[in-house]
# Entry
Amino acid sequence: MNATETNIYNELKPLLTDQGRPCLSLYLTTHRAFPENQQDPIRYKNLLKELEESLLRRYSPTEADNLLEPFRALADDTQAWNHNSEGLAVLGAPGIFRTIKLDRPVADLAIAANSFHIKPLLRTQRSSERYQVLSLNRGEIRLFEGDGVNLEEVELAPGVPRTLTEALGSEHTEPHQTVSSYGGTALGSNMRHSHGSKKDEIDIDTERFFRVVDRAILQHHSRPSGLSLILATLTQHQTPFRRISHNPFLLETGIEMDAHLLTLDQLKERAWAVVKPEFDSRVRKLVEQFEQARAKGLGTDDLKQVAHAAAESKVESLLVEAERTIPGRLNPEKGSISLKPAEDPQIDDLLDDLAELVLNRGGQVMVLSSEDMPTSTGAAATFRY
# Structure
């Protein structure tokens, strides 16, 4: 599991540990601006009705009301609905209630089951598609984060200088000077000669600024997020910055222009053109690894075999199909599965439960679209041994 996947797992870990049942998972696409966002709470309340109907098949009205109380409070929170992102996940169980704003739209979904439904979260927070852009010129920086759908400016962490002045303060480089003595008086005549041009001063300060920025971005943003970093700066600054950079997340390909001159959509388009080949290459590599492993008997797309191997912590990586839902129940201790009606409020998606089990056992999970999947069963597992 790489650094980014570890970050995602740590974020999801509280939702994967033992919790009270049932677990309620609600997802919906939301909108940032008026008038589209006016429909979001209405659609949310319709999904709440679906959750209630599902719960009432197994629980009393009082039990269902207690479980749904925080969900209903959110429905009436006008302030919350005025600050939406592209999507929303709302997760609740006895003693747990959490809302997560998503950076991309999701299919509207309401599920009551024995565990949280996390597959949409895995896909929307998929690290391999996400990236950061460092917009840099001689005097100022900005940082953005996005994926193939969205790009947003990120608030710089405390300790990250935004400008050259913040980075260097008043300690700008002075011209290099020497003092020479000439005859003419008993004490001599001192004359100062500058051997440093204005351009030399600017180049020295620029390099110092780049060093401070590189260290700060690595410490406060790249390492904590684990995301690839794209450098957006003029061509003449690309090589100097890369020469001094110690950031292992910095991609070799950058955006060779001053991003301050681009609109957000233009910057997103250029950034995605850099990242997409990297993502496509990683998907191809995982698919090839699965095919090679399956040929050696170290991989399978059989759901029963996948479940058994996951329970024994043998799954190194698991590919699951985003659009596929297979209603059923997984026994994480025995690694057994059984198909069940989707209407049962204790039944979730088997693929989702397999992903959860693999993550809990230290494996890697990637959610792929149907066209990228190498199998037709909805899952493809590669074993550790």
About this structure: The chain has three domains: 1-125, 128-172+207-280, 296-385.
